[in-house]
Fold each of these.
Amino acid sequence: MKEEILSVGIDIGTSTTQLVFSNITIENMASSFSVPRISIVGKEIIYRSDIYFTPILRGKEIDMEKILEIVQKEYIKAGVKKEEISTGAVIITGETARKENANIVLHNLSGFAGDFVVATAGPDLESIISAKGAGADVYSKENNNTVVNIDVGGGTSNIAVFTRGELIDTGCLDIGGRLIKIDVTSKKITYIAPKIKELAEINNININVGDSYSETAVQKIIDEMVKLLEISVGVTKENDFYQRILTKKGIDLNTHINCISFSGGVADYIYKGLEEKDVFKYGDIGILLGRAIKKSLLLSKLTLVNSTETIRATVVGAGSHTTDISGSTITYTEDNFPLKNLPILKLSIEEEKDTSLIADKIIEKLNWFKIEGELQRVAVAINGKKNPSFIEVEEIAQSLLKGMNELIEKDLPLTVIVENDMAKVLGQTLHRYLNYKKNIVCIDGVRVENGDYIDIGKPLVGGQVVPVVIKTLVFN
């Protein structure tokens, strides 16, 4: 039996704000004699909003009233009422996620859907979201290769690398189309980001706020920005300024990459080579940056892959709900359910091969879930072993606790999700190592991926299983 639900996605980015409404078809894919498994079998975007410049007050706060006005206006234009929405997602990304009132805006917007996936995406998570929106993960899996996606936005360029469909690395650079702003009428420079000003000075490029547009100076600084993007994916060797331009970290430059894709507002000028009479029609250097990337070594050294979305890659079509039941061998030390909207930190099979490295991988990936250095709640997911020995369970438990030490110190919930059937013994072992003083939730029989969120409901069938809702960010 199929069912259709209406979903909405709202993306508030550094440069732009936009909405997408979709019809999502869900179906029970299990047989009549099996536990239900609800899956997405179809998705159709029925309305794309206009694209708005994200309204900011005094450079420090999101203009919440303007955002609400935009959202309400687009609901009316789409002919959709709030109560008709079954699911959806609000994502605040890039520089906007660092604004003082970002969480307040999220709270106010959450009323526009029945059950939002609400997340403030830091640079690592934004890299994953935009790359999946561009279809880089799917292309990598289908073609058995390694793809890097660069989402070139207004304030940052977010990088994600997928090998055979598995996310292996992320990075972010402070390079974007609105880091130099130019008045549309006077053609005078009105803003230069501090790092870009440093880059200009190091390269003896004379460019200052208040100057009239100089094609030579602006093109020179754009070329330097593109060189840094080339370095970021290993096309050219690292220079002295590269570490300075990183938002937080770059990708492993020893990774062998076959293909490249682009998303973000600048991407259309890379793929389509759009001609514009006024290259400063948006009041920034985005168009010129896109043209420069199109002529760069990024395209001559790597195979260009078409993106399924460009400027709309980070718009989340929906927080699609896939209801499932955990395995019957689970551990929970206290009935403090339901647990809502836990983001997933998933280790790959390769990362689990050497048990001694599990801790390091978790510590590294926990950085994906930090906003301004503050760690958010997170559920750690592993594949686990099908028939683990007692020693293997002990080793995995010790590595997990070492990796999750920051969660323990901050008194955040300890939630472990295992795909294979070993959650009861693993959970009991974790609890024992913590001297039975820390609450643990450890469930199995559930498959999740990075970028997912999970809800865990109150135990059923005498506490033997728990209902889970896996919220997969759906992209076009």
Amino acid sequence: MAEDWHDMDDAAIDWIVRLRDPGFDGWEAFGAWLAADPAHAEAYHRLALADQDMGDLVKAVPAPVVAPVVGLPPVRRTITRRTWLGGAIAASVAGLIGFGVIERQPAFYPVETAPGVRRTVTLEDGSRIALNGGTRVLLDRKDARFATLERGEALFDVVHDDDAPFKVAVGDATLVDVGTRFNVLREGKVTAVQVAEGAVIYNPDNEAVRLDAGQALRALDGDAHLQLAAVSPAAVAGWREGRLIYDGQPMTEIAADLARWSGQPVRADPRLAERRFRGVLSLGDGDDIVRLAPLLDVDVRRDGGTWILAPRTQ
């Protein structure tokens, strides 16, 4: 029997409320719920967007005063975000808040994935953005040719338009497409770009570095030095097929890649953090971290809820 859409929306609202808790640790259950039915992800992102749009409005709504009982002070009823969100969606946003509020909704809206969850977004012009786990991008309602990668990793498959080049803001840089399929990683203060097809211009108003297919760039915020390298176009965004190809990347980067893919915290022991690895890791569903230990020539152990890639013991 098909799931009732009311139940689906109620579940989505519950996740929105729970994810707002800084101590939330139910990523595995959240990912399983999203994966159970494509309609779950659609409902979640639709209602999360509505929640964001109404955030400021909720703060402005005065708490209604309930008529007092003789001899008792007035009672002020609290309206929670969940109550407002559920009621607003049930009665329709437009009917409740009116055209003026809709006009004032923010131009930018986020699309994000939990660790271990991947998603592809298709834009109005047909361009597509594939998000790896633990990724957040900002899109612009007023400009479908602009995106900001705040954190994580995304593959941009862009429909080229000479009159309106697609731009991606990441860190303190801007990328401009030249008929392009490219992967962008934002980890801490590091930005890494790999081009599979076409070309990308890195910071056209400053360094203006052109990256063609098979080229990669790595930049650190505040550092004028850019690291350029070659990359196999076929290896770009291999994470989409569960395949990670390395040519001398440090173990810290590999740990971060495994964390995004698996949805589990992974870090490298400081003793081997800068050890370089060359090879291919084939990833599957479930707990692959221990299975990869012999390929990485490391020991894998648990420290609380985190997987540690540590030097091998004899």
Amino acid sequence: MTVSLITLGVYTSATGSGLACQAQWPLCSDQLIPTLTINPDFIEWFHRFVAMITGFLILGTAGWAWRRGDRRTTRTAVGAVVLLPLQISIGAITVTINGLVPWGYAVPTHAAHLVAALSIFTLLSLTTIYAYREHHSRPPRARGRRALGVTLVALLVSGLFSRGVPLLQYSPGAQAWYYAVSLIAVIGLLATVYWLTGVDRLGRQLAGLALAIIVGTMLIGRDLVAYTPTVQLLNFGLYVAAVVLVAGGLWRLFGRVQSPSTPFGTEHSE
């Protein structure tokens, strides 16, 4: 749901639908529910509706983690809840434009909204990874290979829609697909960094650097800087660097086979 919400938020912004609803929040054009047809008012309202459902699910996740009694899952799940009011407030400011806040619909506010959304997504991803850490039959290195494989495929697909790779027009639909697939790469790299801790230091560093680069390209794609030909070239270079790092991590993990004498699931780097 959080992936869907961020993707929908990108589409809403790209279509200019954040300017709809007559700069009102939480109402939309003096209504609680606008006309249910595909128009800017509906797109903006639907984004808010999905955000509300996702918010309740995040609260439920935190409640589950609290009852489970695990410290790590509780910290990350509750951290996502703590960020929720901030994200809601920034979203409200973003769509008021010249209504309540004159500077609401501006690049800095959009940037803060995306950063908060990515932070919540990261915390929820870590909650999931921590919750399932005892339910894997494969050793950490094998898990890392699988996660990096998924990441590499996601990166190659995201390149079709990326603004830095001029293959397709960077339309609202392309932007939504780019961020949806990029988020899959993000969670794959988060899992890799976690699973390779204490197992393969270099592989973990490669995944961590690729993660930082991907997040950077996602921020560049939201017009946080003037998108000049130089910035596009930089964006393309960062994309290629991320692909190389992930491919290098895969090559390293496939090239280092677990020793038969190493206890299953407890391998360590040489």
Amino acid sequence: MSRPVIGIIGNQHQINDQYQVQAVGTMNITAIVEVCDAIPMMLPADPAMIGVADAIQVCDGFVFPGARPNVHPEEYGHAETEAHGTFDRARDALALPLIRECVARGVPVLGLCRGFQEMAVAFGSTLHPEIRDIPGRLNHRMPPDGTMEEKFALRHWVTLTPDGPFARLFGAPEVLTNTLHGQGIEDPGSRVIVDGRAPDGTAEAIYIEGAPGFAMGVQWHPEYKAGEDMVSRPLFEAFGRAAAGLRRAA
């Protein structure tokens, strides 16, 4: 039996501010290869280049990774403001319907940071443009200076729902994670179950209620040294098993 193929949604990027490319972080690729024991496949984040049906036909699961551009607020009924930052409407146009179709068909999906927010928005959630501006909230953004180890350092605990899917997966009622995001869930959609929160109440772990397959997302970045981290590894292992199971069933 061949290994499952996991699609990673790419991001638009310019090399030297001129040459347009689609790119995927090596951390995501490494996590899929080494922890999921799967074949990574980058998908261009543009429905003009690949459609939802084609993507599902060739992949056994999908990772929706982080990115600097944010989901456009029009996707959840809000007006655009300067606080919302930059956008990638092409990724919105592919990722949101792809998430919905995957969930409907039981195709495994794992959302990371922006991908977590895409999952939330795809199922009716709204987002706040800058969590740190809400009274009583922490600054969840990436530290502006320091090494990669310092930027991705474990910075706060996430308290999980007792006996919820994340607590069962991690075997613990709370886990220590990194935090590198500005936006966050404001009001979750009816099927978006918040299963873990930061100390300030910010949603950090979600799953889609009633999904027939793996449909989980985290606001942090578990792809960083995924094979070494006691929280990241079981998350990617579970996702990899789900993708392998779908391949065997095909």
